[in-house]
Amino acid sequence: MALRSRFLPLEIIHLILEQLGTQNDLTALSSCSLVCRSWVEVSRSQLFYSLVLDIGPPATRGGIALSSKRVEFLRSNPHLSRRLRHLSIVTSISSPPSSQASLICDILPLLPRLNHLSFDLNSDLWVYPPASKAIVAMLRRGTIDALDLTNIHFLQYDDVFSLLYATKLKSLKLESISFAVDHIFRNSESAPSTMMRCCGDLAKTVTLHNLDISVDEITSVSLLNTFLRVNSPLDVSGLRSLSVLSPYRHKGKGGTRRLVDSVLPKLLDVNRPTLQEVEIEGALNDTLFKSIDARSIRILHLHSGKDLPGWLSWLIDSFSDAGVSRSSSLTELMIRVSDTYPGSAKDIPKYCSPMFHAFDRLLCERFPVLPPFQTMLWACRVHVLFLAFLAVQAKLVNVTLDDQDEALTYTPSAAWADDGSWHDSTFQPGDKEPHKVSMSFTGTAIYVDCVLAKSTSNPPLNGHSDMRFFIDGALVGRFARDISNDSTSTYEYGTTVYANTSIPTGLHTFRLQNGHTNSTTQSLVLLDAITYSYDDEQPDSSVTVYSTATESLVISETGTPDGEDAVPSESSNIASVVAPAITVPLVLVISIFALALYLRRRRRRRHSFIGEYGPSTWGQPTYASTTPYPPTPLVSSSTDFDHPSRASTLVFETSARSR
């Protein structure tokens, strides 16, 4: 907004800045351009908003001398200390000097309007006794509505429950919390009485709106159980945002199991009417599923691993109910898959593809409409982060080359025999050249099927096998099998000895090699067929799922056994795929962001001018245009997202850890 009045009172300007300041968003001031003769006087009070206090040793940044100057500066400038809203007390060492506690006691009383207090001490002590009393007094004053505690180690009851004295606390963040006397918290009889003793003079019940917990210790679970007791002054029944991460970081400890089995379902259950944002990481159970109300949640972030199918099943079951889906307010869903998933993130389509498609159909049928600008931004994010995943949504076509196919080249030709059902080759120790079969193909996956002999008594069909596989000249796998004597000359048909589903799209060469020049045992290959898959760039409602025999063995190696087989890899195919995959989404994101910012500025500029003698509308908010844009497909090109009433946000992400 722009105010161009020479007669605008300074009191009104102060009120405008006060209103912007209550949003706790520093970017709010960037949308306000005030023009007046007393701008310096007005802006001076708005420039001192946040203070970071480092209580490290003197060798770090001057230590006590530097902090003392800050205290003196606040004393001599009360108009600035009254503007300070966010105080962060940090240290990068494990044992800060105890003399710094007095500085904390000196600073806190000078901040009458402080509303956000953060501690990140990385220390064996939370706060020293003098500082602890000062912090409790600050919390009792009733101005603190956000409290962040990171890397804190509690020593005594007063320290543990001092955070409960914040009568206006709306947001509580606990990360990497530990305790020195955790056995007392496990005592169900002493914990409530001690808590009431410490908080007996509490004047008002604390009502949290946001709770963020990163569980690192068993006792954190006990602390949560203490909070959830009936007599606890901390009311957690009105949460709007709940984040619980890493409940199974310390495997084998009973306390972390209790978080999922009892505490987390209880938190979800008591907050059914108000909870709008949920972020959960860890294993699931039926109690947890029943505690989540799909009607009220607006934003759902799931950090999943092996329990991904369980989450998808719950989502499908919840939103398949027409009554639930019609009343659902869900607008944002993110599933972040950790590296604990079977195989790796690349196996997600193979394990969960049918569930993805089933839930995808529910998205476009049931979910509410997103704002156009938000829809465009999330569409860009999906396209950039999950281009590899979206690629598997297209239809895969299989091409099978029988051993008689002319596309297969056998070398040396005299070493291969054709009996009508397969091509067989026996490599003998002392052979000058390994036996090979090669081909060229364009695709993303390849499978090699052979017939395996189970007998070693018949010399022509000795069942020993030693096969190596090369793609573009690089060794990518090996199949080795050494069986015992078997009097029955039987065969195993249709055994997949090699499978690779992560080949970049493009033209490739494949070679199967039987034996190697340094081998001391013979090797038999009975080639049946080679199958490769390619993407026909047409949408399909399913993804082909492949399986391999239980006895197949694929071993990744980094080198080649023979010098004559060490052919440089052809990197042009990879480059031809990686370059467009990076540049095209990047250009798309930049273009959409530029267009969105341009339209937003143009809209704001159109409504920002206020005539000198016209009616004033500076107190009214300006809303972005709600002209419907056709949303971009988010998950699968086969899903109908073109209808403006069927826009949704769905994000699937694969990463090692989020926090």
Automatic annotation (TrEMBL):
Keyword hit for Magnesium: no
Gene3D superfamilies per record: Galactose-binding domain-like
* Region entry Disordered, spans: 620-647
- Name the source's superkingdom: Eukaryota
Determine if Transmembrane is one of this entry's keywords.
yes
What keywords would UniProt list here?
Answer: Membrane, Transmembrane, Transmembrane helix
TM spans, by residue? 577-599
Please report the stretch or stretches of sequence annotated as the F-box domain. 8-51
A single Pfam family it belongs to is F-box-like
The protein, known as: F-box domain-containing protein
**What is the source species?**
Armillaria ostoyae (Armillaria root rot fungus)
